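Quick one from the shared queue. A colleague (R.T.) flagged Pseudouridine synthase as missing a structural entry in our internal table.

Convert sequence to structure tokens.
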Amino acid sequence: MERLQKVIAKAGITSRRKAEDLIVNGKVKVNGKTITELGTKVGANDRIEMNGIPIEQDEPVYYLLYKPKAVISSVDDEHGRRVVTDFIDTDKRIFPIGRLDYDTSGIILLTNDGEFANRLMHPKFKIDKTYIAKVKGIVTKEKIEKLRRGIHLEDGKTAPAKVKLLSADKKRGTSVLEMVIHEGRNRQVRRMLEAIEHPVIKLKREKYAFLNCDHMQPGEYRPLNPKEIRQLLALSTAKKK
């Protein structure tokens, strides 16, 4: 048995906080009866409706995918392009946690657990994502310091990034950087690097928190194990300073 608001959040319909508001305001029914008590617990066989719409209770699943380039971080695409859910063999209604750009490869998580996804994506928990970027030009120490301090973009200044120069090829005029950020703005790493005049040639998300896609090929996936799920939940529970 689980609390009603938690079950609604897990279904990916809305956040737990909004689910609580809906319950208190009489918008949720269990087995045909309107529920307004937040402590109400429900089981797998209970019939839940929110605003008259049935909510399906699926067993939660959690996957790690090595997303290839030229794949959309969505469950469908109006232009018929490949999406991340195409690579995972499951009958569950899964969705990606956050996104990776179309031209960016690397690790992405997918689940049908809406509450889990919301917790991992919440900015206050500052979950690190590590990127490896090959860029045009030789990146100087001064440019790296700019990235570390934060870059002013059109949607505001970015949080400070952890940045390392991994290599520089003067003959080809390229550099390879490791960047660790915890924000999830649209095309953020690419825009940060464009802002310092080093546009991205190739970009991969190497790590999500402690998870990586080592020994995997683009398009391969695996389920997360119980220990990994517990560790991610721990990261999304303890607020970092």
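The helical segments are 4-10, 16-24, 114-121, 141-149, 188-195, 226-235.
The CA atoms of residues 24 and 36 lie 5 Å apart.
Added to the table.
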